[in-house]
């Protein structure tokens, strides 16, 4: 049997601090520190604790060339090799032996991820995160009690006398929309989003306004937000709760054909439960009649930006631009919107059928009619 190391692997010396009660009562230093080595392998997405012997094997077996298992066992010990194969940190070439690890490793290799970016993405995802499981939204008052006051909202980088005074901006066309935009946290749970509004929002925020062939077979879309390399890899997946003429459920929005492609039908209890789960228990968003998951097709971006130090950052920026355009369109339609990165990516991947090594869930947006209540804080512009 031939083996090699998984493609992307980082090892972190993790320090756990413990109170040593015996030492405390004996009057000695009571804080004990314990270091464990954690293997962070992007194709697994789950941490694996490794021993020093296993680390030596991981450091000695390369990720490219296949080597005889027997030779590796002789060098690094049969027990270490067996455990590393069993945990998926080493990959075997045979079909019966944990072949699913090889498949995941190959998916990762095929996408051209930068190793650090793949690791950052795979290990920052949440699954089933809820308020009662450690999802916390401390108030500003609580934060100040814990950490003192935050760094000030603005800084000076020059003496006041050296600063160049600028004229006050004149009012202009965009102002009405910009000043009315705010993050809604009190949605009307009965209101239905009119189809025409939903359609305009989706088309102007996520739809193509044109298509251009940059080289034979290499197409880019023109959208109303900027995108790194013009690639527009961020896809919009819709959770429709109450959209006029659209059955509750999950859809993919096709940016060229301007259609909603049905993925799963649901009843309204299921859509409400899923909405809550998607935004990790942020119940102030759940009444939004339409939510949109922003998920980047990394392969499209990494086709150009292969193993690139800036590519991951560019994907996050792309999603940020789309969400701002979404906000402004919702504002124009007289509605608040929201965007949140505090989402349960793993649950979202599961229901929409997305592979996190290929389709990177970045954020969830939503919008809907305001209820008029102020149960949860909002920050509206006050002249
Ligand atoms: C990347 C990002 C993540 C956010 N995540 C959350 C969130 O998890 N929960 C929430 O209530 N608001 C979230 N917001 C909204 C911000 O709290 C909001 O934009 C900010 O308080 C300013 O208010 P405004 O948008 O009404 O001007 C997020 C905004 C951004 C840009």
UniProtKB/TrEMBL annotation:
One Pfam family recorded for the sequence: Nitroreductase
Record-linked Gene3D superfamilies: NADH Oxidase
CDD domains: McbC_SagB-like_oxidoreductase
GO terms assigned for molecular function: oxidoreductase activity
InterPro entries registered for this protein in UniProt: Bacteriocin_Proc_Enz (IPR052544), Nitroreductase (IPR029479), Nitroreductase-like (IPR000415), SagB-rel_DH_2 (IPR030965), SagB-type_dehydrogenase (IPR020051)
Residues of the Nitroreductase domain: 180-366
Origin superkingdom: Bacteria
Protein name from the UniProt record: Putative peptide maturation dehydrogenase
Origin species: Rugamonas aquatica
